[in-house]
Write a structure and sequence with these properties.
single chain; 100 residues; mainly alpha; two-stranded antiparallel ribbon; 10% strand; elongated
């Protein structure tokens, strides 16, 4: 019999039900509970936490290397602005997870 709320490994041997072993697995229980209680990664929430703590400003130099650059991004200001805004959001989200 297994105590309620415990995690176990059930090992079935080749000898059938008589060759069965039940082992309490506290490590597996701790790992599962830790993953269930982990904070949800929310870049916007992290940004608000940084603003509240006065740590919301980071200066970085970011460079992107591409094989081919779309013509719209060299001649159309609206498209360049959209692209730049998307790049900034992606970079900000990536840095938010690193800077915890």
């Amino acid at each position: 019999s297994v105590p309620a709320g415990e995690y176990v490994k059930l090992i079935l041997g080749k000898g059938g039900i008589d060759d069965t072993e039940v082992i309490l697995d506290a490590g597996r229980k701790e790992a599962l509970e830790a993953s269930q209680n982990a904070l949800i990664d929310d870049p916007e929430q992290r940004r608000q936490e940084l603003i509240a703590a006065g740590q919301d400003s980071v200066r970085v130099e970011a460079k992107m290397f591409v094989d081919e650059w779309p013509a719209d991004l060299t001649s159309n200001l609206d498209e360049m602005d959209k692209f730049n805004a998307a790049f900034v959001l992606a970079l900000r989200a990536a840095l938010a997870t690193i800077m915890r």
